[in-house]
Amino acid sequence: MALYETLAQHFIDDIQAQRLPAGSRLPALRTMAKQHQVSMTTATKAYDYLQQTGWIYAQPQSGYFVANQLESTSFPSLNIKSIEQRDPKRFAPLNGYNPASALFSPLGTSMISPELQPSVALQRSIKRVTQRAGKHLFQYPETQGDKGLRSALAEHFRHDNLAFSAADFVITNGCIDAVRLAIESVSKAGDTIAISSPCFSGLLDLLSALSRKVIEIPISEKGLDLDHLETLMQQGLIKASLFSTSNMNPTGMTLPVEQKQALATLAAQYKTPMIEDDVYFELSHQKQQTLPAKYWDKEGYVIWCGSFSKTLAAGLRLGWCVPGRYLTSYINQHSLTSFGVNGLIQSCMAEFINTGEYRSHVNKIRTVLNQHIHSYQQFLIKYLPTNAKISAPQGGIVLWVQIPSLNAVQLEKEANKQGIDIRSGACFSTHDFYHDCFRINCGWPLENTGDKHSTYQQLISLCDIINSLMRAET
User: Fold this and answer.
1) Between β-strands 398-402 and 437-441, what pairing exists: parallel, antiparallel or unpaired?
2) What is the pTM of this model?
3) Which one, 6, 284, 328, 355, has the greatest CB density within 10 A?
4) In 385-410, which positions are buried (b, 16+ CB within 10 angstroms) versus exposed (e)?
5) Helix/strand/coil percent split, the chain, to 5
6) Three-state SS for 332?
7) Residue 321 phi/psi, 5° resolution?
8) Per-residue pLDDT tens for 332-351?
9) How many Å apart are CA 216 and CA 430, to the nearest integer?
10) SS3 label, residue 132
11) Rounded (10°) angle between helices 201-209 and 175-186
């Protein structure tokens, strides 16, 4: 065991024995290093390890504190009958899986708050590009995307040990558009796609609109049920698979490295394309960036999709795809449904990446979002029923909450009456497995400003509604 792990275990033992109760402040890094006679590097690694494993959390300008130990959300045990081909249109909630809400509140849509967006730096990039804009910016853009942006992306991901060239990328109108093109490039109406359970509601609506059938692959605390996925591939029951693998929505789970490797291997072995929706890829809360399944894809069967919607600004509507062996059919499909993506926005984004502003921004918000997640978790532990189970994601911006006996659909309705937008578990599956679960967004800071419309007050009101519903149940 490394020295930093031994040091971390010392704190874990104290936490488990309640010698360090939840909320206790830990020694500052320099103090801890002196007390244990270790280097600052070792002390930092120990605290990083404790944060990554959920034992402690950091507060800006305040220090490190012992976290409440969360009881993990559980996943349903699917039987063979449950794992069946289904038409998502038949099982959609009344207003669809991902309905456009008539109201907006910070807890609903998965996105970061405007104050976390680098508006000034982005405006500077836009100004520089428009000042030197040539005529080409106002012509129809190249279908594959602006080469400058594709080159900037290739260089950007090279820093994350992902080796791509500009020719590998296709620029799209956001991640959902990238996924749509992938589905249309490798399947046709009536084909069956394997998805995770639970699955992002927007993907279920997309598959429904494209007339694809689905088979839901169970997720447990250990990850996807790869044995069942392989059986489906062996029997030729699916045309493709569609999975998120890092900081996935709605659970926040990241698949283990071994599973990501296995997904790439299975796709190649059975020549069954895998579409990897990796929109949260860059929002890991750990210092070491996670790798996508695409990293282990040697034969091009993994179609890697992402965007800037979750990391930067949803309104840019700018995404990308690395289609691998399906590049030609992907570009052809893109040309049928679009005359390219806004050239000016592409050039502005290339500028923003090349100046280093984008990487600096992503590194900053990863830390901030980690703090947000911990703040929301501690709040929910305090105000929700004691049997509530709250996810402990390694990245992303959402929390998945399960409260046994809760009617989450009714909760959603009651919350909407008070102007609070959340997502019930019914939005994330064609099955009725998640009736006692809901998802909330943690992209807004949780501050008690006294404003009745603040995120803090909305979360207070949401907890009041939940406790009222639970009392009515008993």
Assistant:
1) antiparallel
2) 0.88
3) 284
4) eeebbbbbbbbbbbbbbbbeebbbbe
5) 45, 15, 40
6) helix
7) -150, 145
8) 999 998 888 998 899 999 99
9) 8
10) coil
11) 40
Mean pLDDT of the 48-58 span:
77
Residue 175 C-beta-side C-alpha neighbours within 13 Å: 23
Cα gap 164→153, rounded to integer Å: 9
Domains and CATH numbers, the chain: 3-66 (1.10.10.10), 106-114+368-473 (3.90.1150.10), 117-358 (3.40.640.10)
Flag the least confident range among 141-145, 240-244, 335-339: 335-339
**Residue 243: what pLDDT?**
98
Long-range contacts of 43-47 (CB under 8 A, 24+ apart): 43/4, 43/7, 45/2, 45/4, 46/4, 46/5, 46/7, 46/8, 46/11, 47/8
Task: Report yes or no: 306 and 319 within 8 Å, Cβ to Cβ.
Answer: yes
Contacts of 350 (CB under 8 A, 6+ apart): 146, 148, 149, 151, 152
State both tokens at 105: 């509140």
